[in-house]
Amino acid sequence: MSYRAAAARLKTGDTAGYARICERAEAAVLKDVPVEQLNDAAWQLSLAPGGARAPDRLAERFAAAFKAAKGPMEKHMYANTLGAVLIRAGRYAEGVQWLERGVAADGDKRLPEDAAFLAIAHRRLGDGAGADVQLAKARKAFGLLSEQPEKWADCVVLELLIAEAAPEQVPYPRLKSPVPPAGE
User: Fold this and answer.
1) DSSP states of the chain as a string?
2) Domain spans of the chain?
3) What is the pLDDT of residue 170?
4) pLDDT tens digits, one per residue of 34-91
5) Fewer CB within 10 Å: N-end or C-end of the chain?
6) Class of the 54-169 domain?
């Protein structure tokens, strides 16, 4: 199963389907798979709270991947995944550090998911102002992404993360187009 399938399951409220995807993804993580496959599996596990049952194992694998990464974009990719995994494990301060480290490694290029996960972490740490700054960045990115139909899965994930980071601030711009079938 893919990131797109996981996003579709979450968007349609199919938590049982998302749980099945997470079971398969976590099984892959516990094997010695290439880091690219590990990254894909970890993102599937990080899309919603409770996706990973062994987040500490994921964190160990990504710390090693970050050290072995060859370029700034690769370092950013592994650091932001590690940050998301740590946030899902309830290790918010460490998650913030890794997300910021990834952004810094890539010339301060912030991905929309970076901002959304930072907003979640700051909110959980009691830093409402920090969360609001990151939410503004995530919402701006959502607006830009929602104009690109091929980015529907990214929009769905960003929409869910924004809602998680600021449930008291909903409504916010929602994805206009329907989610393609889960098999896509």
Assistant:
1) --HHHHHHHHHTT-HHHHHHHHHHHHHHHHS---HHHHHHHHHHHHSSTT--S-HHHHHHHHHHHHHH--SHHHHHHHHHHHHHHHHHTT-HHHHHHHHHHHHHHTTT---HHHHHHHHHHHHHTT-HHHHHHHHHHHHHHHHHHTT-GGGHHHHHHHHHHHHHH-GGG---PPP-SPPPPTT-
2) 54-169
3) 54
4) 777 888 888 888 888 888 777 777 777 777 777 777 777 777 888 888 899 899 889 9
5) C
6) mainly alpha
Give residue 176's pLDDT band: very low, low, confident or very high (50, 70, 90): very low
Residue 86: both structure tokens together: 């740590």
Burial class for 164, CB neighbours closer than 10 Å (0-12, 13-18, 19+): middle
